[in-house]
From TrEMBL, chain A:
Sequence intervals crossing the membrane: 6-22, 29-51, 63-82, 89-107, 127-150, 162-180, 186-204, 216-236, 256-281, 318-340, 347-366, 372-396, 417-437, 449-469, 499-522, 542-562, 614-636
Protein name: NADH-quinone oxidoreductase subunit L
Domain NADH:quinone oxidoreductase/Mrp antiporter transmembrane: 181-459
Family: Belongs to the CPA3 antiporters (TC 2.A.63) subunit A family.
InterPro entries given in the database record: CPA3_Na-H_Antiporter_A (IPR050616), ND/Mrp_TM (IPR001750), Proton_antipo_N (IPR001516)
Organism domain of life: Bacteria
UniProtKB/TrEMBL annotation, chain B:
Name by which UniProt lists this protein: NADH-quinone oxidoreductase subunit H
Subcellular location: Membrane
Keyword Transmembrane helix: yes
Entry GO CC: plasma membrane
Alphabetical UniProt keywords: Membrane, Transmembrane, Transmembrane helix
Location, primary (coarse class): membrane
Keyword presence, Membrane: yes
Topology relative to the membrane: Multi-pass membrane protein
InterPro entries in the record: ComplexI_Subunit1, NADH_UbQ_OxRdtase_su1/FPO
TM stretches of this protein: 6-26, 66-84, 90-109, 130-149, 155-175, 207-229, 235-254, 266-288
Length: 637, 290
């Protein structure tokens, strides 16, 4: 018990201290110690409980309940006032409604409902704790260096680093609570705290754009919170329980499916699935560490975590089918939309949403194989995406912008950063890196569950994925000799150490995926579904993939000495016979020297406009509406 | 057991490009006849490669040649996995890896023509990739296994259940074999609008490697066709080889009777054909639950 409490409370304490300390040197030290401490604590906790798991039933939880209620009411008061101030009355209505509902439930209906097991540490929450703790604290560490550089470049933004860094740790604390709670009331509380943290982080710069986007994130996520609150009340009143594990163990009958559907809708808002994805795209106005945190270790992972938990209730039910379709539409539409983006962070954002769509698809199909793939996707996506965001953040400091077109000179500006970025991108789509393993299994399980349409959507979506990652790596490798006189920030050790560690984690987790599967995922599946689960990829194939991985790592070593001794004659590149002396210019029609300029394809005519987004959203809304009808229908019959 | 495995692998690595090279020679003779010329001898592709290997070593920078070898490595690995009867999805992913390394080579040469070629190559991959994956999915549905060895030991050939998927696969095969009208990224004829696209900056030994890689790729592409026809009955393998030859002959005719199309048409048509055939065919198969 003590260790779990320490794990949740330690980041909270660090958060408060960071918030209070205004002196930069001391604060940096506090954040560093806090990040390393959280990291160590996470690993220690995981080592302690990973094998046997842990189920805690607390006798006296009244103090905690009161604390939660007070914070919830305070938060609601703040949000309602904010909604009125900014004339976004919808926020106020949502917040008022859900708080009133929860209070009514708490004081009039809850008597007699006993929560036996409040905290569960099983293999799945173990995996989540590791993701939150390890990736999250590396991002906090990175934030120390990044924010210093950020305020040197952005003098127009008021320096509120204490606040920013404090919120990062608060976020981690809430995430620990979220993945460890079995008590739905606590889970809901942590859920709301993460919503609030993301609102604070997105609005950090206080520009009108940031303010609008943060309010948008708040509207959508508080709206999801309403669905969550209604689900809790329904579960409590109909089944006299507030435990997630009890809910999951029920039969998927009509009365259960309504709250499950509501919980899934809450999860879809949090995981930024269509039609709720606008907030995550808007979240990019925030400084990079917060984007990295939102996209990899926290926020969006909370949604898919909940869907993975609920997976046994989804499967072939109408709710499961609808959620699968929403996930697949999201996966396909966002993979295509990513092609049209030039802004590196936008590409990353669309790819996050697409991959979350894939996770949602896998989890809601509900078969053992599919959930195996979903959990692996969560892991690989977290490690690769966080590496990518951190690299892009540092690249932006180096190049002065984050347009992918300009990254062809990155090899000259910072070779290290281009290698880290390449590893991250490879992690997202190349065989034998992680995401691909999961896609493979996803494909297999979709066919096994006879979902032909989903198989076809997966095939198209992954082809689109290939295109936009491929041209990005290509741009990095094309190694142009652009102007290198731009302002290059310092690539500080504070930034490099976390990036290096994350790159190492990406590679190691790919090499070790058979082990992850054996130690964590297969035991979880055996427990959740009963019987003996099996890894869906055979040993022979796992071996081939590990060998490929090793070859990919060793390959660069093979060619470096070779090319140094080569006796090849070096010639200029082909410019149709009109070279102007270097590899950059050619002699144009009237004898003028002209620079050859190339740009990647973005297919903007097809995928760039608002129309594509509009129709994708419409499809998702229609699907959800059908879902509502099906659920009501199932209940009425 | 291990010794037999190693011998089989060595045979695959050695024989695949030889057969692929012969096919290329066959291709050139047929193409010449179609155009009313006599054409080169059957072994001309081998003479060409030998000639290329002897040429002087020229390069435009230090790194771009590496990708050609990386590409060859993964293409050979694909051939080994497929011809040993391994997992088809794994083979497809490794094949993609090989193809994408080739495109990276185009980028790395920094030459405008190469980079345009590389970009086109990526676009072509995006065009044909869905159909390749769906082919594997369809074959899995009828044989309940991704292992090619299982797929070719069914009682009934897969083509019976998957005729539309087969048509779709032949359609995108044109990309894979780098045939007109879908040879946007690496035209095969003398002076193309893009001066040989990705391969513009390659010469001598690396150009030979590209040629050999392509031989492997042709055989890999035809191996997919083979899987549609082979069954547990030994005679079916003869039919399967015949089917491969017929398909290849058909592709040569298409190559010679069409002109290159714009990328828009290539992408759209490939995706539409893929969508239609896969929805129709896979729906029917899943409805009857083979």
């Amino acid at each position: 018990m003590n260790l779990i409490a320490v794990l949740i409370l330690f980041p909270l304490v660090v958060s408060i201290v960071t918030f209070l300390v205004r002196k930069e040197n001391i604060r940096s030290a506090v954040v560093r110690i806090g990040a390393v401490g959280t990291l160590g604590l996470t690993v220690y906790t995981a080592l302690q409980y990973f094998n046997d798991g842990l189920r805690i039933s607390l006798g006296e939880t009244e103090m905690i309940e009161i604390f939660i209620l007070v914070v919830e009411v305070g938060l609601a008061a703040y949000i309602i006032r904010l909604g009125i101030q900014t004339k976004k009355y919808l926020i106020s209505v949502f917040s008022l409604f859900q708080t009133a509902l929860i209070l009514w439930f708490e004081f009039t209906q809850k008597h007699g409902i006993e929560v036996e097991t409040s905290i569960v540490f099983d293999k799945l929450s173990g995996v989540m704790v590791l993701i939150v703790g390890v990736i999250g604290s590396l991002i906090c560490l990175y934030a120390v260096g990044y924010m210093k550089g950020y305020h040197e470049h952005h003098t127009e933004v008021k320096d509120r680093q204490s606040f920013f860094l404090g919120v990062l740790f608060l976020f981690l604390s809430a995430m620990f609570g979220l993945v460890l709670s079995n008590n739905l009331m606590w889970l809901y509380f942590c859920w709301e705290i993460t919503t609030f943290c993301s609102f604070l982080l997105i609005g950090y710069t206080k520009t009108p754009e940031a303010r609008n986007n943060s309010l948008l994130a708040l509207i959508i996520n508080v709206g999801g919170g309403v669905a969550f609150a209604i689900a809790i009340v329904m579960i409590g009143m109909n089944f006299e329980t507030l435990e997630l594990s009890t809910l999951i163990a029920m039969k998927p009958e009509a009365l259960v499916l309504i709250p499950v559907f509501l919980l899934c809708v809450a999860a879809l808002t949090k995981s930024a699935q269509l039609p709720f994805s606008a907030w995550l795209l808007g979240a990019m106005v925030a400084p990079t560490p917060s984007s990295a945190l939102l996209h990899s270790a926290t926020m969006v992972k909370a949604g898919v975590y909940l869907i993975i938990r609920l997976a046994p209730l989804l499967g072939e039910t109408s709710v499961g089918r609808i959620i699968t379709l929403v996930g697949s539409i999201t996966f396909l539409a966002c993979s295509l939309l990513a092609i049209a983006q030039r802004d590196a962070k936008k590409v990353l954002a669309y790819s996050t949403i697409a991959n979350l769509g894939l996770i949602v698809m896998c989890a809601s199909i509900g078969t053992q194989e599919a959930i195996w793939a979903a959990i692996l996707l969560v892991i690989f996506h977290a490690v690769s995406k966080s590496l990518l965001f951190l690299s892009v953040g540092s690249i932006e400091h180096q190049l002065g912008n984050r347009n992918i077109e300009n990254m062809n000179i990155l090899m000259h500006v910072s070779r290290k950063l281009s290698i880290y970025l390449t590893i991250g991108i490879a992690g997202m789509f190349l065989a034998p890196f992680g995401m691909l393993i999961s896609k493979w299994v996803a494909m297999k399980s979709f066919i096994d569950s006879n979902n032909v349409i989903i198989v076809i959507i997966l095939a198209y979506g992954s082809a689109a994925t290939l295109f936009y990652w491929g041209k990005w790596i290509g741009t990095l490798l094309s190694n142009g000799v652009g102007k290198t006189d731009g302002h290059h920030g310092v690539f500080s050790l504070d930034e490099e150490i976390p990036i290096f560690l994350q790159a190492a984690i990406v590679v190691i987790s790919c090499l070790a995926f058979p082990l992850i599967s054996k130690v964590a995922i297969v035991p979880y599946l055996s427990e959740a579904f009963g019987g003996q689960a099996m890894a869906p990829i055979g040993l022979g194939n796992q071996l081939i993939m590990v060998i490929m991985m090793a070859v990919l790592i060793l390959m660069p070593l093979g060619y470096i000495p070779l090319s140094k001794n080569s006796k090849a004659r070096v010639t200029p590149i082909y410019m149709a016979g009109e070279n102007a002396g270097d590899n950059e210019h050619f002699i144009a029609a009237t004898g003028v020297k002209r620079k050859s300029e190339l740009s990647n394809w973005y297919l903007e005519v097809y995928l760039g406009g608002k129309r594509f987004t509009f129709w994708s959203n419409m499809t998702a809304i229609t699907l959800l509406a059908i879902g509502v009808l099906l659920v009501i229908w199932g209940w009425a019959l | 057991m291990l010794a037999i495995w190693i011998i089989r692998i060595i045979l695959i690595v050695v024989l695949t490009p030889i057969v692929g090279g012969l096919l290329a020679g066959f291709d050139r003779i047929i193409s010449a006849r179609v155009q009313g010329r006599k054409g080169p001898p059957l072994l001309q592709p081998f003479y060409d490669v030998l000639k290329l290997i002897k040429k002087e070593n020229i390069e435009v920078n230090k790194t771009y040649k590496f990708y050609v070898y990386a590409s060859l490595f993964f293409i050979i690995l694909t051939a080994v996995i497929m011809l040993m009867g391994g997992d088809m999805l794994l083979a497809i992913f490794v094949l993609t890896l090989g193809a994408i390394f080739f495109a990276f080579g185009g980028y790395a040469s920094q030459s405008p023509y190469s980079i345009i070629g590389a970009e086109r190559e990526l676009l072509q991959m995006m065009a044909y990739e869905p159909m390749v994956l769906i082919t594997a999915a369809g074959l899995y549905m009828v044989s309940k296994s991704f292992f090619i060895s299982d797929m070719i030991s069914q009682a009934v050939p897969a083509i019976v259940y998957l005729p539309a998927v087969f048509v779709g696969f032949v359609y995108i095969l044109t990309f894979k074999l780098r045939k007109s009208p879908f040879d946007l990224s690496l035209g095969h004829h003398a002076h193309q609008e893009l001066v040989q696209g990705i391969s513009t900056e390659y010469s001598g030994r690396e150009l030979a490697i590209i040629e050999i890689t392509h031989w492997y790729e042709s055989i890999i592409a035809l191996a997919f066709v083979y899987v549609f026809f082979a069954t547990s009955n030994p005679i079916s393998h003869v039919f399967a080889v015949l089917a491969c030859l017929v398909v290849y002959f058909f592709e040569i005719l298409v190559d010679n009777s069409t002109v290159r199309v714009k990328w828009q048409l290539a992408l759209k048509s490939a995706w539409i054909v893929t969508g239609v055939v896969s929805v129709v065919n896979l729906m029917i198969v899943s409805f009857f639950k083979f």
